[in-house]
Amino acid sequence: MTKYKSLEQVAELLAPDLATSSLIVGIDFSISNTCHHSLNGRSLHQIGDAQNPYEQVLRLTEKTLAPCMKDKLVHCFGFGDASTQDQDVFSFREDKLPCNGLLEVLTRYRAIASNLKLAGPTSYVAIVEMAMAIVGKSGGKHHVLLIIGDSQVTRYSGTDSDKLGWFEQKTVDAIAQAREYSLSIILVGDEPPPSMMFSFRQISSLRAYDNFKFVNFTGIMSKDVHLSRKEIEFALAAFMEISKHKNTCKRKLGFLYKEVGSERVPLLPPVHNSAPILSKSFFSDILRRENTIHDESGPWFDRLEHESPMIGGYTGVIHIGNFPVPSSFEALYKKIWLKHGHLATRNIIKTSTLTLATIVAELLKSIAAMESVKRDKLSASLLGKWDRQIEDTEALQFNVQWLRRHFEMVKKSWEAASLLRNSQLT
């Protein structure tokens, strides 16, 4: 039984060693994520009301590391899809810049996962080499590479059971090469097949110091204990050993660092199934400060110009107070804006109006449901979804204090009705 009672306590433990580290995230979009046994045959990337395993890992990582790391920028890449296969990685942003925290990573993940084409083969070589390139360019600053996948590195049939397949060997070689960099690698996923467990053991015997950690996320989350205990166990399993490895890096590498021989440049985010959520044409090159009925004390926003614009899957965009919202939410947003001001702020996400608009669109969808749903149709899971969504926007310092108060009133009303209904039944 761990002595830690909350993720906050774990974060306090990690803070001294991770304060000067930076985070890199790599997400596996290979086809082995489909029809997964841990989700009763559903895809691990399925986007819906409930969080999929990738979203869960990102959220837990944000809760654990956000209070620790001074550097809030997160390099985030995808690999294994039709555009990258086993050769490249793609950036989560069209400008190829880091994301402004893991909450932006989550938002962009949902948009990307809903539209790209899963492919393969699965290999971790490209993402490890991308991370080494980032560390090299940083002058040797310590980075944590968090790879989230299903642990299924491609292995062709016919490979001897006691030998590594071609893709497995290349992955092992890349992780072994990463020993020369101030880079801690954490792979979070399902219990890997026996061949990859052999790969991990081989890495242990080769490396000069412990730069690699595998965390069986499925195994931890399937335990019959309270969710908070599972979250604490994951955080400790994933990040507890970073301090030891970072200190070893200082002793082994000192102030030396190595430039990567071949330059790794990420591809642009893939666009499939007519998904323009990250299309470059959505961004306006010029910041327009038009004389609207905009509240001058609030933020100015880029106008999104496109012949048939979309935000978060919604067709048709209208600008209210210079902020883009789906036209289907025009009346609702105008009502909110006139009474409370804009929902979005530039406090955390400072550059991407499209990201802000996408988050607001999803929030408006929930607000509309909150206003229209009948009490007997409410449920603990639906209230939990709304609560998490508001919590995310609070972390982004959005103007949602009024929404939090309204939600708590809805929640208390439902809880009171549930107690009354249960008492009548007994």
Topology:
Elements: H1 7-18, E1 22-28, H2 53-65, E2 73-79, E3 90-91, E4 99-100, H3 102-113, H4 125-137, E5 143-148, H5 166-177, E6 183-189, H6 194-206, E7 212-216, H7 217-221, H8 227-239, H9 242-253, E8 310-311, E9 314-315, E10 317-320, E11 323-326, H10 330-340, H11 353-372, H12 380-395, H13 401-425
Parallel strand pairs: 1-2, 1-5, 5-6, 6-7
Antiparallel strand pairs: 2-3, 2-4, 8-9, 10-11
Helix pairs in contact: 2-3, 5-6, 12-13
Structural features, described:
Residues 272-300 have low confidence and may be disordered. With 426 residues, this protein is α/β, with parallel strands linked by helices. The strands form 3 sheets. Strands 1, 2, 3, 4, 5, 6 and 7 form a 7-stranded mixed β-sheet that branches. A two-stranded antiparallel sheet has the order 8-9. A two-stranded antiparallel ribbon has the order 10-11. The protein starts with 6 loop residues before the first helix and ends with a helix. The radius of gyration is 23 Å and the shape is globular. Strand 1 (22-28), helix 2 and strand 2 form a beta-alpha-beta unit. Helix 5 (166-177) packs parallel to helix 6 (194-206) and helix 12 (380-395) runs antiparallel to helix 13. It contains 13 helices and 11 strands. The protein has helices at residues 7-18, 53-65, 102-113, 125-137, 166-177, 194-206, 217-221, 227-239, 242-253, 330-340, 353-372, 380-395, 401-425, and strands at 22-28, 73-79, 90-91, 99-100, 143-148, 183-189, 212-216, 310-311, 314-315, 317-320, 323-326.
